[in-house]
Amino acid sequence: MAIFGTIVKSLIDFSDLLLAEEDHIRNQEKVLKNLLEKAKETSFGRHYNFQEIIDSNNPHIAFKKQVPYHDYEKMNSEWWHLMHEGESNITWPGSPDYFALSSGTTGKTSKRIPVTDEMIAAIRAGGIKQVLSLRNFDLPPEFFEKEFMMLGSSTDLEDKETHLEGEISGISASRIPFWFKGYYKPGDDIAKIDDWDDRVRVIAERAKEWDISGLSGIPSWMELMMKEVIHFHGANNIHEIWPNLQVYTSGGVAFGPYEKSFNALLGKPVTVIDTYLASEGFIACQVRPETDAMQLITDNGIYYEFIPFQPEYIKEDGSVIEGAPSLNLSQVEEDQDYILIISTVSGAWRYLIGDTIMFTNVEKAEIKITGRTKFFLNTVGSQLSVNKLDVAVKHLEEKYNTTIPEYTLCAKKYEDGFYHVWYLGSDDLKADEIEIAKTLDSHLKEANKNYKVARSKALQGVKVRVVNPDVFYDWNGRNKKKGGQVKMERVMGEDKFSEWEEFTTL
Questions:
Q1: Which residues contact 295 (CB under 8 A, 6 or more apart)?
Q2: Does residue 197 form part of some domain?
Q3: Are residues 136 and 255 in the same domain?
Q4: Within this chain, do residues 277 and 302 fall inside the same structural domain, yes or no?
Q5: Do residues 381 and 370 both lie within one domain?
Q6: What is the dihedral of CA 60, 65, 66, 72, to 10 degrees?
Q7: Do residues 377 and 420 touch, judged by C-beta distance below 8 A?
């Protein structure tokens, strides 16, 4: 009998009696006040007169008026770079012990985002919130007695004398509480292996030693790991190796495009729970099974603002114009796309994280990630966000009974005008590429009025190439971005797309 699991599950169930329904708007008011109070004597806080904001009748309005938007380049060039020169109390009291490296999907040069002790604590509190929410998913006691595989970047952080550097998943895994270490796999020694392929090889070799009940990580890299484990042991699916696998905690990207290919590796259904952990903080997690939306963590060191996702507010490079209006949580509406802006206990202020979100339930503060500001395809007015592109790919999967876990595209100019050139990653899509292009074009015209208008003007049509999904993973590997927090860019500019097309012919 799973005695310990029964105890843990009982404690989680009992926590439901202690947790009242959250007042998310009130939570956010408190978070903003605390952020301003703690940072008012920093260089940033004095420069923007945080004390005056605190003393005002409406701090959230004064905050918007006095503090401009910042993307990474602005935040780093004006403020964060001073920390690397040994200065302290710049945008948050003291000096951070960690910097999270994040090249994301848009470049080869890593961003260095400060991670303070307060942020480490906030991430851990977010994890506890997610664990407590498991009471809503009706999991058996046995689930809580088995092991949990967290597949992220290496925990072998780089020592920079005054701080340590690594991806946020590696930083988080390196700070796992002592009581969880017995459940955590692949374990400290394997997690420190820097080379992704070597780490996965060792995981495959050791896989049968573990009784895994849960997986956590980015879908694309989780799929590759499971394929390697299945292949190494000559199995038909991952449940032949880990028969008690019941939960997959996804994160980093929308799970939808990977759902079909992911499920093909399973022997039986698992519960999929979405999370939103970025280099800048733990933003949201799914807390109930009735929806695949995630609840913003509103009481945990991050203050959120939302800019309506409209073309007139977005510059060509994906940043926002300074006069773009921002809303707080009390002002948003459901089923509208917003650009997410955050201020955090790591000293990010009115920071453009690069994601767009949509509220599915304002009262419960539940959201879905809908795309990236830099991946908004608006050439000649087509106005396609990543979620619309994902829906189009899902349509192809259903029509051709196939899996397309990866794709990328570019609005490319030819002699007769612009075409959307798609590369679809699939190893079983056998249809003719011209036919696929017609199907894709027809779906986009039916589903998106702006795209239909663009097709009647300068957008001439769609071109499609089908390549093996491994090409996408090899591309990330060439750019030293294999594994960890790495996501494939869905939309590329023409210069980078030229590199991509050359790469696919090698």
A1: 284, 285, 286, 287, 364, 365, 366, 367
A2: yes
A3: yes
A4: no
A5: no
A6: 90
A7: yes
Is 410 inside any structural domain? yes
- Quick check: 7 pLDDT over 80? no
pLDDT surpasses 90 at 144: no
Last residue of a domain, which of 240, 261, 285?
285
Please indicate, yes or no, if residue 360 is contained in any of the structural domains: yes
Last residue of a domain, one of 285, 317, 350: 285
Same structural domain for residues 256 and 312? Answer: no
- Dump pLDDT digits (tens) for 328-357: 999 999 989 899 999 999 999 999 998 889
Kindly report, residue by residue over 448-471, the tens digit of the pLDDT. 888 888 888 888 889 999 999 889
Pairing of strands 147-150, 184-185: parallel
Token couple for 458: 């300068």
Asked whether the beta carbons of 491 and 377 are under 8 A apart, the reply is yes
Q: Determine the Cα–Cα distance for residues 76 and 93; give it in Å rounded to an integer.
A: 17
Q: ∠ CA 371-227-470 to the nearest 5 degrees?
A: 55
What digits encode the pLDDT tens for the residues 285-304?
A: 999 999 989 999 999 999 99
Q: Which domain CATH number covers 152?
A: 3.40.50
How far apart CA 157 and CA 446 sit, in angstroms, is 49
- What sign has the CA pseudo-torsion 29, 35, 36, 38? positive
Place of tokens 């602005």: 74
381 and 497 within one domain: yes
Hunting for tokens 């420190």 — which residue is that? Answer: 192
Q: Which residue would you say has higher pLDDT here, 3 or 95?
A: 95
For residues 365 and 410, membership in a common domain is answered with: no
Q: What letter does residue 176 receive in the DSSP assignment?
A: -
Question: Would you call 502 helix, strand, or coil by DSSP?
Answer: helix
pLDDT digits (tens, 9 = 90+) for 201-260: 999 999 999 999 999 888 888 998 999 999 999 999 999 999 999 999 887 677 877 888
**Does 111 map to a domain?**
no
**Whether pTM exceeds 0.85:** no
Q: Which two tokens stand for residue 240?
A: 């032949």
The H or E element spanning position 339 is strand 337-344
Torsion (CA) 264, 267, 269, 274 in degrees, nearest 10: -60
What single DSSP character describes residue 75? H
As a whole number of angstroms, the distance between CA 335 and CA 295 comes to 15
How many domains would you assign to the chain? 3
Range of the domain at 334: 24-93+292-374
